[in-house]
Amino acid sequence: MRRMESGLSHVGPDGHARMVDVGDKPVTRRSAVASARVVMRPETLRLALSGEGPKGPVIETARIAGIQAAKRTSDLVPFCHPLPIDAADVRIEARGDDALAITAQVDATWRTGVEMEALTAAAAAALTLIDMLKAVEKGLVVETLQLEQKSGGRSGPWRRGER
C-alpha cells in the first residue's frame, strides 16, 4: 500500500493506523479541560437539580460516570495510551433555564496529553444525564462537546479562542 503523506501521527509509513510510540517523550505535568452541554425542557432541568430523578440522583451519577470514563479512555478510544491519571474532576451546573453545563478536568504527569480523557469524561457525563432523564424527556440534546484548554507537553498551553 502506498504511503499517504497525511501528517497524521496515527498513520504509519505503510498508511495503516497505529498507536504512536511515546517512549522517548519526557514525562511532564499535563492538564486538559473539556466541556459539553445537555439541553432540555425547563421542567426537566428542575427535576435534575432536585436530585430526585426517576433513576436516582441525576447530577451525582453523571459526575461519577464522567470520572470513571476518564480512567477508562484507553479502553474506549483506539490508540489512546493508558495513563496514570493524577486527578479527574467533573462539574455539572445549570446554564440558563434549559441546560446543564459539564466541565471535566483531567491531570496527569506522563508522556502524553490528557485531552481525550477530559473529552471522554464530559461525553460520558452527558450521556449519563440523558440516561438518567430519558424517562421524563425523550428529546434531550448533547451540544458542544469540545476541548477548552490544555497544558503541558511539547506543544505547550492552548486555550479555546486563542491562536
Describe the structure.
With 163 residues, this protein is α+β, with helices and mostly antiparallel strands. The protein has a single domain (28-154), classed as Molybdopterin cofactor biosynthesis C (MoaC) domain (Alpha-Beta Plaits, 2-Layer Sandwich). It has four helices and five strands; from the N terminus they run βαααββαββ. Strands 2-3-1-4-5 form a five-stranded antiparallel β-sheet. β4 and β5 (158-159) form a beta hairpin. α2 packs antiparallel against α4. The longest helix is centred in the last third of the chain and has 19 residues, at 115-133.
Key terms for this structure?
163 residues; five-stranded antiparallel beta sheet; 4 helices; 28% helix; disordered N terminus
Layout: helices, strands, pairs:
Elements: E1 28-39, H1 42-50, H2 58-71, H3 73-76, E2 85-94, E3 99-110, H4 115-133, E4 141-151, E5 158-159
Antiparallel strand pairs: 1-3, 1-4, 2-3, 4-5
State the end-to-end CA separation: 37 Å
Task: Please identify the top-level CATH class.
Answer: Alpha Beta
- CATH homologous superfamily heading: Molybdopterin cofactor biosynthesis C (MoaC) domain
Q: What is the CATH fold-level name? A: Alpha-Beta Plaits
